[in-house]
Amino acid sequence: MGYDMVHFGHANSLRQAKAMGDYLIVGVHTDEEITKHKGPPVFTQAERYKMVRAIKWVDEVVEGAPYVTTLETLDKHDCDFCVHGDDITMTADGIDTYHIVKSANRYKECKRTEGVSTTDLVGASEYSVDDGHSTSLSTDASARSPWTGVSHFLPTTRKIMQFSSGLVPKPGDRIIYVAGAFDLFHVGHLDFLAAVREKGDFLIVGLHTDPAVNRYKGANYPIMNLHERVLSVLACKYVSEVVIGAPYSVTDDLLDQLKVDLVCHGATEISPDEDGSDPYQVPKSRGIFEMVASGNSMTTDRIVERIIEHRLEFELRNRNKEKKERAAFKAYVQAKEQGKNTIDRIVVE
After folding, report:
1. Which domain holds residue 259?
2. How far apart are CA 306 and CA 302, in angstroms?
3. Do 42 and 93 share a domain, yes or no?
4. Rounded to a whole number, what is the distance in angstroms from the first to the last CA of the chain?
5. 167, 79: one domain
6. Which residues span the membrane (predicted)?
7. Do the Cβ atoms of 163 and 234 come closer than 8 Å?
8. What is the pLDDT of residues 213-240, one digit of tens each?
9. What's the predicted TM-score (pTM) here?
10. Which member of 50, 203, 301, 331 has the greatest number of CB atoms within 10 A?
């Protein structure tokens, strides 16, 4: 898969795939392949390789995996079968990318996570800049693909539990605490979390509420809501636990309850709390605060800038993708009714 703008929907499919076997190998396509078949990706292939490797259910990543999965590919990596969501991906020529392995009965499906897709995240990023509101690419459900944008993500305690590691600190563990928005979870976030995890044994990430993020980031943010951001962070292998709706200012009560040994913050600017106070005054006074450089300059703002810079290309990509997926869904339903597990070539004018 492409795994562009890696989100919790991708992570959820990998969680389900891992549950079907013992060792999960994930193939990630090159920029060239994605551009040819879908349009330009937002993240580079190097960024996408790194992001997928950091998802906690992934054991191995195959870089530059072929766009059409073949039996030779499965055999080369000693894979018994491959897994994909219950949507359909196609080549630029309208061919089901999994038709070979489906015909050989070496294909399994997992449930696609409704209410999230790269298409919608790109659209939300564009529209948040346009009018200050995070919204989907289109509000007309009849014009949308049945696999993207037809529903809103509904967070449940079950979903959060599925993503949670269920770990608790062991006696003697050094506990690290960080907090932030972690909006559109990206390689900058990832490198920061990897850096701070090296400073301890148990990493707790506090996720600020939507109103708090809106206050210090501006009216266009957050692009993803609190629960979506929680799942994105929980999927990261460096994260042990999250605090949902963490207070913006780190308090004595928070530090004592979580038994925090060190509080870290990245090299980005720290905005004052609503009353003008330093949100890290308490850990600073205890001598347990440290600024940690991630070595990565990527920010959520820079991702949005990338999308806006290539806006016309992304909009064309998304329109073409919607057309192909609507046609594929119709063919998919017909194939199921006929008892077939593959569909014929899709031609879209």
Report:
1. 157-299
2. 6
3. yes
4. 25
5. no
6. none
7. yes
8. 999 998 789 999 999 999 999 999 999 9
9. 0.82
10. 203
